[in-house]
Amino acid sequence: MVKCKKCNKVVSLAKDETSKCKGSCEAIFHKKCVTRTTFKNEKCEDCVSLPGSQPSSPSVEEPDIAMTLAAMNRKMDVVYKMEKKLSELAELVDFVSEKYDNLMEYQKSMETKMKSLQNMNSYLERCNKSLEERVNELEDKEKEKKVEIAGLERKEKEDMTKVIVQIADKLQMDVSQIESAERVGREKPDTNKPLPVIVTLRTKKVLLKTMVAKCANTY
Fold this sequence. Notes:
It is a single chain. This protein has four helices and seven strands. The protein has helices spanning 45-49, 65-144, 160-170, 209-218; strands spanning 18-20, 28-30, 39-40, 43-44, 146-149, 178-183, 197-201. It folds into three domains: 1-54, Herpes Virus-1 (2-Layer Sandwich); 65-143; 145-218, Alpha-Beta Plaits (2-Layer Sandwich), CATH 3.30.70.
């Protein structure tokens, strides 16, 4: 004779709807006596409360050490490559910085040389101006010792210095003041006009107005 574990009444296996505990007790229950609180996971509350009766949680697979190490190695390789690139970048920055410093030093050196050249150029300009003034002064002084005589007839194989000395002597002038005499310019084929004569004196101009005025008639 089988009784319901809940209501303790006889269970007719042929007539009553029943449920059987799948726990260790394997007791029979009326279907109507089975509730959610008394029957969990097809086990009665007594079997559910027994130690070790709780369903074991699915086992967590232990991680694969080889795969973990491989992943770590890949990450370390990435880190190593990044460190290498950073090191190369740092070396490049140092190289560029050094070249920049050298360029700045070269620029300063060029600026110093340029300033020196500018100062030298200014000095040479002053010297050149002074020389020009001196040359002009000498030319002016040289011109003071030169006299131009125009209209003096040209003769073949003439010695112009000797001719001028003879003219000055006839005019009773100091012939020792005459240094040289020569004709200047180019003769023009379409004219018979003689070239002018430049007389160079040893000192400043001696008044040759008389010689200039009378040379054409005397010679």
